[in-house]
Amino acid sequence: MSCNAAELLPLLGGTANASAAASYLCDRFTTVTYAVDNTYLLFSAYLVFAMQLGFAMLCAGSVRAKNTMNIMLTNVLDAAAGSLSYYLFGFALAFGAPSNGFVGRHFFGLKNIPESTDSGTFDYSFFLYQWAFAIAAAGITSGSIAERTQFVAYLIYSTFLTGFVYPIVSHWFWSVDGWASPTNTDNLLFGSGVIDFAGSGVVHMVGGVAGLWGAFIEGPRIGRFDRSGRSVVLRGHSASLVVLGTFLLWFGWYGFNPGSFLTILKAYGSPGGYYGQWSGVGRTAVTTTLAGSTAALTTLFGKRLLAGHWNVIDVCNGLLGGFAAITAGCSVVEPWAAIVCGFVAAWVLIGLNKLAEKVKYDDPLEAAQLHAGCGAWGLLFTGLFASKHYVGEVYGLDRPYGLFMGGGGRLLAAQVIQILVVFGWVTATMAPLFLILKKLKLLRISSEDETAGMDMTRHGGFAYAYHDEDDPSQRPSFMMRKIEPTSTTPSPQNGGRNV
Predict the structure, then answer these.
(1) Average pLDDT for residues 7-21, to the nearest whole number?
(2) Which neighbouring-strand residues pair with 115?
(3) Helix residue spans in 189-238 (DSSP H)
(4) Fewer CB within 10 Å: N-end or C-end of the chain?
């Protein structure tokens, strides 16, 4: 939505004073537009940050009680350590424009922010939103290596992931200068660019693949597989926390996906119409909801057929798998296609969990299967089902769209390239880091600490510890009994007093 003083001038009489008035009104209108769009972006950033609480609750409920304090602390530090590393290096590497196609070169330490360049307008709200995405990727990884990882390893990998690994990927696919970005109109990959609107690949695959290598290099938890190699379920201690975390993540996803429009005050078509970017925001929220809900129901009935019971933990993971999958194409697909996305995502997650058991891979939160596996499916889904109409609206150019929608295979080819590149980059950076940490004996805790639980051995006590004297059931019985009169009948021996 823009204001043109030349168009406004005839309406004000065409005089010199009218020209000044037209320019004045347009300047004020532009200021209001920036204010509304930045307020929308800040609100979305707050929603995405609230997902950290969802991750914390989900992780806490999915581990055993003896490791609750440990996993909660790592979630706090993902955000805290990620704040500094993304401020110092990450944002500049991701969006420091102008730059080349591979890495950003400006805005280290937020120098010269706010600033408007040929590549766009950069303000503090944009930094905050992108930081919330970066720490989300680190939070995904922490779930994969839970219950057996040294605390110092969390600090090292979280700083490295949010300050270097993730920013490079986001530059490639989200910066206007990125070599595979759909907004790099000077050099579109396959004439299309990659459509990863809110990060099925950039966020979920990066976090999931990093977690995959961390968990693989560490090995399974003690007791996860018996001596004959059969899988032993090590259940998390609180389904209530898992459900709470899932709903918080669901809520935050409305900032994650719809918020990725970055602006909202933009009309599609003629000025003054009812249809605009606000409609795209609403549609994206709808596709997100439908994909997650479909995946949850598919997982519910699928696991009932396979395992013979209804399991709320499986349903929650299925729901999140649907969300991770729809994140790439949420803005460019029809609502009915989102149902297809969620249905397939559920079976991708179920299948990968079965495969993980076969190869004795242990991920307490199914994070690699859920985020990397379903994220990869989401990228393929976008290449198959992206709508011509919505691709044109969101990206503003006539370009390839989904194969099944008649758009040819060029978008799908770009999506496949992204899957391969993200997997290769994260493998080349994070796998050596975990191997070095293992070599230096900084990765995995001792078997004694793992058996006892890190809360007691590393963090000074259990998360649910209390003092026995505060528990009424532990008090001696003579302290609990109220002394009552033995009789209410007056006795002549004591002068009529009750005994």
Answers:
(1) 56
(2) 122
(3) 206-218
(4) C
